[in-house]
Specification:
Helices cover 37% and strands 16% of the residues. It is an alpha/beta fold and 447 residues long. It comes from Hansschlegelia beijingensis.
């Protein structure tokens, strides 16, 4: 090696925090006072200082079965020794087909075909591309418009941020995809604050799609994408009848309905999917996070038989959909996913949230009279406590709560001035009481 190049290969100091540009993080604040997690088991992380941290957020909404589950760990260990990687382009491996079949069997009836991605963001962009290509395959290539919703979150790909409606995620990156419009959001604290269960008011907001149809023409609209329950924007529950109304309008105008179930999939709301909980089936559904319990990155798009068959024409040797990823259906992800489904089934985790829902709701609403609390929302094993913002300093109050909770051994999630809790589905009654008891202390202490 030439002497002049030796310095380029010299490793950096291992305790240097500068190299890692952290995602969705106040980097300067973190690196001034790091919060390091070094191990995890079941319901707890362990911090670098040895403290146990109760996981109130299932990692990032993904560790639904809890941490370090033996069946999943062992499946990944076996798989990496047997088949570490296999290409998915013109080739296959058995576990990809087995896992796709298991997912299709678990999904709402009619969603029979699975396209693998590597994250929720990739799953969303895949779903949008499938919707556009589907209409073109049917001879309606003029359907190029995509409709999202204000305050929606659909990942961080250009497709996802374009149909998404979280302003901070969009403003830095220019115009995004052309031909995108947005429904109004459903958050209506003036009428629905402190409602237990689904909000009574707001089903009529689905009619906003009719306004967009009148503006753009139904013949130009390919798909509408919404989260059945908007998670990252603050746990916004759908008003009673809203999703049914949206489904009916899409049917009336030949528009595909896409549900983003990256957060709500795999038991979060007390059923395998939010589609099951609310009784509304989309044409396309995106999943990720809980699909492998967060152990190996993976996303999946489930599509109807009609959509799949629309592509299956032309010469048999030709590729039907010019789309895919190097790691689509990765062997380790499929092994983790199969073991995750086994764990969910053996422990009844896909419906456990329905049994725990009342306790979590009661614990959340017990915070109603604490300082600065302006709304509470809860369903399944997910809850939100919305705080009054500090004037001129949005998000500061909730971020202070996040820091104080970590000091007290509890991990929470914040978005703006909303605190979100979404513990692993294995959470015990005592741990629910501990989470909300700690949070109550936090809310009393912050300004």
């Amino acid at each position: 090696m030439p002497t002049s190049n030796v310095a380029a290969f010299r490793p950096a100091a291992t305790n240097n925090l500068d190299a890692f540009w952290m995602p969705f993080t106040a980097n300067r604040q973190f690196k001034d006072a790091p919060r390091m997690l070094v191990s995890a088991r079941d319901m707890h992380y362990v911090a670098a200082d040895g403290r146990k941290i109760l996981d109130g957020t299932a990692g990032l909404w993904c560790v639904n079965a809890g941490h370090g589950r033996p069946k999943i760990v062992e499946a990944v260990q076996r798989q990496v020794a047997e088949l570490d990687y296999a290409p998915a382009f013109q080739m296959g491996h058995p576990k990809a087909f087995e896992f796709a079949s298991r997912l299709a069997a678990l999904a709402p009836a009619g969603l029979d075909h699975v396209f693998f991605a590597n994250s929720g963001s990739e799953a969303v962009d895949t779903a949008l591309k499938i919707a556009l290509a589907y209409h073109r395959a049917r001879g309606e290539g003029q359907r190029v418009r995509l409709i999202g919703r204000e305050r929606g979150y659909h990942g961080v790909g250009f497709g996802g941020i374009s149909v998404g409606g979280m302003v901070a995620n969009r403003r830095t990156f220019g115009l995004g995809l052309p031909g995108v419009d947005h429904l109004r959001h459903t958050h209506d604290p003036a009428r629905n604050a402190f409602t237990r269960g689904l909000p009574e008011h707001g089903a009529e907001l689905a009619d906003d799609l009719e306004r967009l149809v009148a503006l753009h023409g139904a013949e130009t609209i390919a798909a509408v994408i919404v989260e059945p329950l908007a998670g990252s924007t603050g746990v916004l529950l759908p008003p009673q009848g809203y999703l049914e109304r949206l489904r009916a309008i899409c049917d009336r105008h030949g528009i595909l309905l896409i549900f983003d179930e990256v957060i709500t999939g795999f038991g979060r709301l007390g059923a395998p999917f939010a589609s099951d909980r609310f009784g509304v089936t989309p044409d396309i559904m995106t999943t990720a996070k809980g699909v492998t319990n967060g152990v190996v990155p993976m996303g999946a798009v489930l599509a109807s038989e009609a959509i799949y068959k629309a592509f299956m024409s032309g010469p048999e040797h030709m590729i039907e959909l010019f789309h895919g990823y190097t790691y689509s259906g990765h062997p380790l992800a499929c092994a983790a996913g199969l073991a995750t489904l086994d764990t969910y089934q053996e422990e009844g985790l896909l419906t456990r949230a329905a049994r725990m829902e009342k306790q979590l709701e009661d614990a959340a609403f017990a915070l109603q009279d604490l300082p600065h609390v302006i709304d509470i929302r809860a369903i399944g094993l997910v809850a939100a406590i919305e705080l009054e913002p500090i004037e001129g300093e949005p998000s500061r109050r909730a971020f202070s709560a996040f820091l104080k909770a970590f000091e007290k051994g509890l991990m929470i999630r914040t978005t703006g001035d909303i605190i979100a809790l979404s513990p692993p589905l294995i959470v015990s009654e005592a741990q629910i009481d501990e989470m909300f008891g700690t949070l109550a202390d936090v809310l009393r202490e912050i300004g």
